[in-house]
């Protein structure tokens, strides 16, 4: 099968498979505070690490009409200079999904999903207590990408990780983070997700 980008229906595919091809993608469950100190918690499936020296992550904020304005996570990170990434896990899948609801600006998605929040150390946005791994981030910059719809923005928000929290129970006897213990979930295409329950290792060739 071959088709030019955006022409999947002409190739006989009812839904665009792009997100299913570039998969799995970790979910950035982003906490921010607005200028009034109100909590915003939202999951982003276009999220990843892009550097480790210094450790840097991004989340992509798109699909929002310019008339309405950018998404709250982006606006808050840009205004306050901080955000937290709480890793979404199998046990938290329903709560994570609930926080994707479109609530009015300023309404607390964490409270809506019944999640307890705890303070961070170096940044002001709080952390999801039940999440076993958190990345405290300082906002670096926003990059605007081209958009197929000029009326909709397409942005990537970058942050430097300045502090890391890991539940001690997720560390194995060798001192390594065992992802099969905390079971991060990832986004696939369509309405599908995956969970990490098995890993394998390979040595690089010398």
Automatic annotation (TrEMBL):
Residues 20-178 form the Flavin reductase like domain. SMART domains: Flavin_Reduct (SM00903). It comes from the Bacteria. Pfam families: Flavin_Reduct. GO terms for molecular function: FMN binding; oxidoreductase activity, acting on the CH-NH group of donors, NAD or NADP as acceptor. Transmembrane segments: none annotated. PANTHER family: BLR2425 PROTEIN (PTHR43812), FLAVIN REDUCTASE LIKE DOMAIN-CONTAINING PROTEIN (PTHR43812:SF2). SUPFAM superfamilies: FMN-binding split barrel. This is Flavin reductase (DIM6/NTAB) family NADH-FMN oxidoreductase RutF.
């Amino acid at each position: 099968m071959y088709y030019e980008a955006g022409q999947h229906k002409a190739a006989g595919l009812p839904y665009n498979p792009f997100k299913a091809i570039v998969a799995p993608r970790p979910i950035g469950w982003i906490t921010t505070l607005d200028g009034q100190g109100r909590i915003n918690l939202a999951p982003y499936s276009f999220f990843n690490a892009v550097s480790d020296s210094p450790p840097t992550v991004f989340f992509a904020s798109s699909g929002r009409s310019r008339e309405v304005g950018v998404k709250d996570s982006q606006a808050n990170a840009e205004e306050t200079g901080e955000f937290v990434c709480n890793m979404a896990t199998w046990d938290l899948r329903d709560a994570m999904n609930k926080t994707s609801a479109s609530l009015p600006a300023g309404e607390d998605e964490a409270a809506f999903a019944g999640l307890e929040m705890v303070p961070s150390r170096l940044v002001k946005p709080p952390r999801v207590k039940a999440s076993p791994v958190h990345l405290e981030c300082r906002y670096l910059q926003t990059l605007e990408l081209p958009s197929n719809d000029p009326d909709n923005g397409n942005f990537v928000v970058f942050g430097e990780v300045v502090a890391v929290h890991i539940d001690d129970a997720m560390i194995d006897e060798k001192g390594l983070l065992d992802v099969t213990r905390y079971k991060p979930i990832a986004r696939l295409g369509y309405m599908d997700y995956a969970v990490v329950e098995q890993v394998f290792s390979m040595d690089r060739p010398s």
